[in-house]
Specification:
- With 199 residues, the chain is mainly α.
- It has 2 domains: 98 residues; 67 residues, no CATH class.
- It is built from 7 helices and no strands.
- α2 runs antiparallel to α3 and α6 packs parallel to α7.
- It starts with a helix and ends in a 14-residue tail after the last helix.
């Protein structure tokens, strides 16, 4: 499964590269109408790539919990940013070479964060003992006990919520259980109160 996902990622990467070259070397045809057709088609291709990347990310996150995803996720997030940049390039070309009202018909999208976190007020943990109980209670109820999330997704959420000194405890081999335990016991080793807390 991982090999198949990596091949699909490579195919998407090739399409991104070709579209980027097309944007950078774009020569407008004779009429604004022709430009509009060509550029709208390119923009549609970019939007399709965005949808494929979203599905690809979900497929990676559904891999077994033992799979180390950090390297793959970094590449995917970088590719998502490149696709966002491509979308902007084609919208700029549409504005430059086509009639202004037509460019307004292109849907604008907002750049989203790399990690999709639910629309809930999520706690953050900076390693301070006085924050621990509140963090623990909120995290367990929102993320830890959420059966629709596998351990890879829970680990991504937990990493996103670690701030300050607690952020320094991450490693490339983290799983949800290992990171979860360290964030509680080791975030600030000098503060003994953090040692006695466990999930």
């Amino acid at each position: 499964m991982l090999h198949k996902l990596n091949r699909l990622r490579g195919t998407i990467r090739d399409r991104v590269t070709r579209l980027n070259k097309a944007a950078e070397s774009y020569e407008p045809p004779a009429t604004p109408e022709e430009s509009e057709i060509i550029l709208n088609q390119k923009l549609q291709n970019v939007l399709e790539l965005k949808a494929q990347m979203k599905k690809l990310l979900a497929d990676y996150l559904d891999l077994p919990d033992s799979t180390n995803l950090e390297e793959y996720l970094d590449v995917i997030y970088t590719m998502e940013e490149e696709i966002e940049d491509l979308q902007v390039k084609f919208k700029i070309l549409l504005t430059k070479y086509c009639k202004a009202p037509n460019a307004d018909n292109v849907p604008m999208t907002v750049h989203k964060p790399k990690l999709k976190i639910p629309d809930l007020p999520l706690p953050e943990f900076s390693g301070k003992c006085e924050e621990y109980e509140s963090f623990k209670t909120q995290f367990v109820s929102i993320i830890g006990n959420n059966e629709s999330l596998n351990d890879n997704k829970k680990c991504c959420y937990l990493k996103a919520l670690l701030k300050g000194d607690a952020k320094h405890i991450e490693s490339n081999q983290d799983t949800f259980q290992s990171l979860d335990a360290r964030s509680i016991r080791c975030a600030l080793p000098k503060q003994a109160c953090c040692y006695r807390h466990t999930y």
